[in-house]
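Good morning C.,

I know you're traveling, so I'll keep this short. The sequence:
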Amino acid sequence: MPGGYTASVAAAAAANPGLQVFQAWLALARAETGGLADAAESYELLASPGFSALPLDSAWMLTVPACALVCARLEDRPRAARFGSAAAVHERIGAPTWLARTRLEWADMLVRRGGPGERKRARTLAARALETAVAMGLRSVERRSSSLLATAP
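The tokens, ready to paste straight into the viewer:
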């Protein structure tokens, strides 16, 4: 039940107001369950100004990927560079499942934007996400990457 999921994450965020990771996951829960206006509101609290509200603590590696996923859902063009930052961190810390998800969402956003050269970059990212998804058994990422590759010329 989507409302139950979002309500659970909202309760965790309310119970932990000083932990930005919960705010990031609340924004993501809202975006994934169709509440884009609410997701945007939560996201803006984290993203402005320049994501300076995100502390470089032990939760950072969970907070930034959630923000990157919300960025994609909201098509936040000015802040899309965060995908590259998130991907670099995932590579550095050896987090292939997060890296595959980040690449997939980044590719999806690029396809939807459709700017010069973005489809080619999206195909590269989706192919790399697919490769990792197959190797790691990430069926949802595999399915979505394959679909993106099949529909993005």
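Safe travels,
E.
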